[in-house]
Amino acid sequence: MSFERPTFRHPKLAQNSAGYTRKDYEGAISTLCAGCGHDSTTNALIQACFELAIEPHRVAKMSGIGCSSKTPAYLLSRSHGFNSIHGRMPSVATGANMANRELLYIGISGDGDTASIGMGQFAHALRRNLNLNYICMNNGCYGLTKGQDSATADKGSAGKKGIPNPYSSIDLCELAIELGASYVARGFSGDKQQLVPLIKGAFAHNGLAFIDVISPCVTFNNTATSTKSYEYVRDHIEATNTFDFVPLQQEILAQYPEGTSQEVVMHDGSIIHLHKADSTTDVTDRLIAVNNLEREKVKGRLLTGLLYVNPNITDTHDIINSSLRPLNTLTETDLCPGSSALQKINQSLR
Amino acid sequence: MKKIKSINDFVVRFANVNGSGSASANNLFAKAIFRLGVPVSPKNIFPSNIQGLPTWYEVRVNEDGFLGRRGGVDMAVAVNHQTLFNDYQEVLPGGYFLYDSTRELSDKFTREDITTMGIPFTTLCNSEFKNPKLRQLLRNIIYVGSLSFLLDLDFSILTDSIQTQFKKKPKLAEPNIKALELGYDYAKEHFPGVCKLSVRKSDKLGDDILMDGNSAFALGAVYAGATVTGWYPITPSTSVVEAFERYVNRFRIEDDTGRRKAAIIQAEDELAAIGIVVGACWNGARAFTSTSGPGISLMSEFIGLAYFAEIPAVLVDVQRTGPSTGMPTRTQQGDLLSCAYASHGDTKNVLLFPCDPKECFDLGAEAFDLADRLQTPVFVMSDLDLGMNDHISGPLQWDDSRRYDRGKVLSAEDLDTLKEQWGRYRDVDGDGICYRTYPGTHPTKGAFVTRGTSHNEYAGYTEESPIYQAGMERLLVKWQTARSLVPAPRIKIRDIDYKVGVIFFGTTTHAAYEAISRFSKRGLKINSMRLRAFPFQDEVIEFINDHRTIFLIEQNRDAQLRTMLMVENGISPGKLQSVLNFDGLPVTADFITDKIQALLADEDPATRKVAKGGAA
Predict the structure, then answer these.
(1) In chain B, what residues touch A332 (CB-CB under 8 Å)?
(2) Residue B604 — pLDDT band, cuts 50, 70, 90?
(3) Could you report the per-residue pLDDT of B526-535, keeping only the tens digit for each?
(4) How far is CA A4 from CA A8, A29, A71, A83, B177, in A?
(5) Which residue of A187, B177, B284, B601 shows the fewest CB atoms closer than 10 Å?
(6) A80, A320, A330 ranked by CB distance to B439: nearest
(7) Facing residue for A322 by CB, picked from B211, B260, B443
């Protein structure tokens, strides 16, 4: 069941530069549990799209199966969505993107959908650097089937059932960096201030941008013994950096002491302006990125922020040298070689 | 001994070791016969292995144009020591056994009912050519030269072919021609007048071509405007995408950018391959995947999604011998049920059955129109025999005025001028097919969420039983529409009063027509129907109803098509008598003739109780 949102809004709602109000980016009312981290993440996505003045209908929302994969219905009702099958969002998004490279693709997945059943597709979409904004709403458990541990649940963490998870966990960010991802970030659904610019940076990235959003499950995994509860995450979070996302042709206003900031110019000319807690880190260095994650993990801390970015990279279309025009707009004239070419082929087969 | 004597009607079987370069020599031989205007059908019978195991190449020459396998071997060209004795034994009485006499035959080669001819191919080769790499290849060319003499096959056709083949490397043509001469001269000196099989120039082929089905399907996909393919390598379908890429590189490069008007993605597995196809078709491109049985098993969940969410997709299943890994390099028509009903829940999928390369091209292109029109997966059911072997076929044709049928798709303008509320799953035309929109079409209209969960007419999630049920029933209305759109069967009524009919499809066609022709010569005019699609049309049912007895020929164990006719159309099991070939090799005319002969002998309506068929 889905419920439509009432259409009434204050007549003087603020408009973005494209003339849209925030309401133009909303979707149906969420049917997830009250307080679900996923709804905050959905809101962050709406906020990012609104602030960047993205045309809502030029977005395609892709998902797999699970609580997280339901969220495409709860944002951007003017965009087409595709709630596909479990673990297979990346392949569907790949096909969609191959058909039309001009849309903005938001792929929404969860920890079950990504780290278990969809691990293969996750890895290979990264490898091909598909131009996709891959948001993993990570709560460490299977919500729709009532709280089983997922592969990202930390060893020893216990959810509502109270049984500590005996297996080691998969760190999707670290894995993504090792698999050759070109934009890797971790956010927390409870920290919109950090999450919105992370999403904006992802949108500007020419390739697969992976954001692991720790997004607590209030019903099954928000216990005192869980490492993916709101409280635990708030207490153990360590922001590697805070940053502004500066869209193309806008001025950077804030000034920071030398050595504590880093600028990354994205493919489309927009700039990510980082204010670093530690002046020795460099987000464009893979080795440092992995080391940072490992170092903080030992301390029991969860590193968030932009963890790694390589802005100078080619996406799948450029790797395979496919047309700059959307393939779904090509017609007979572009595609069909015609009867005279066929006669030549016949001749060569005699 | 009475030697087999024949002009333009015999079977030669080459026994080789795979990976030894025999394919090009054998092709040279078959192509030469083709170029003499004589109908010829080569079939590769090869192992699932790259180097070192036995492989055979069977060439059927038939002036009358019967190009299925006949059965039996008139001449063996035996150059594989591993299988030498078996190859010897398989020669029909009166036939010929040509072998490499560099090594002497053992004592057990004692047949007196065949003509044995030894030519020391290895010795001839090694004394003439010093390059060890070339030696192996040229040894094969030498036996082609010998055959040229023995079969009276025009030598200049062979040398012309070599020259064309090595146009860009004339230095390589030279040793090849020398090798042909070596073989020819040796045979001429030692076996004059011995072989009574011969090839004579003919004019039976008109403007026919010699092509493999996988290339023909790939070309059909290029002509039909396919731009996206997701695929995973699997024998015997791999060469589909290889050919697609070849044609894309030839026909789809943009002059100004050098970029390709196609996206070819080698996926990580078959699940991703079909996922890519579904995503691309959802977004308005034409996309396909090529696979074989094991791939279909893996793709099933996605096929169900495409069926239920109504997304076009084209799949070519180049069937191989199952179940499981089965015999990966042998042929079968064993995936009918797994494709027709792929996925859990109630699903039915459209299948097309090409019988030759021209139909791989035609039905391949048509599959894209059907998939778009019906908004559903469409399967082109090829097989290893059709896909990987060269077949004589009518020339490929394309009507330049043909336009792609993209089906019911609303543009931004359509959405603006719609009089009533649009619903993605609202059947406004009564044919079970609803109007769809591509993502990004209109700023405020036409967006929806595609889902595999049950949905109402407006694509919203629903768990209301009547709405779910109405949707499932509408899909059956669409299925009825499909019946009127899929290609019609080819029915041949030879005797309207003779109430025996035979049904077949795909690569059984050629051997079946040959068997029918043999019965015709004996005065039994059996009527025939070649099926070209599932769902079955009314005329399929009428043909069955018009006949007292139906023989249904399939290349599988369980009579899968028979099950489909029984289940979908309520045909009585007693009516459908199965002729089933499932040895992994293309069915032969001899096999079909013998089986039908036996069934006809049993045919006594008074005593017959239960027809033979699949267990299902």
Answers:
(1) 225, 402-404
(2) low
(3) 999 999 999 9
(4) 12, 6, 14, 18, 78
(5) B601
(6) A80
(7) B260
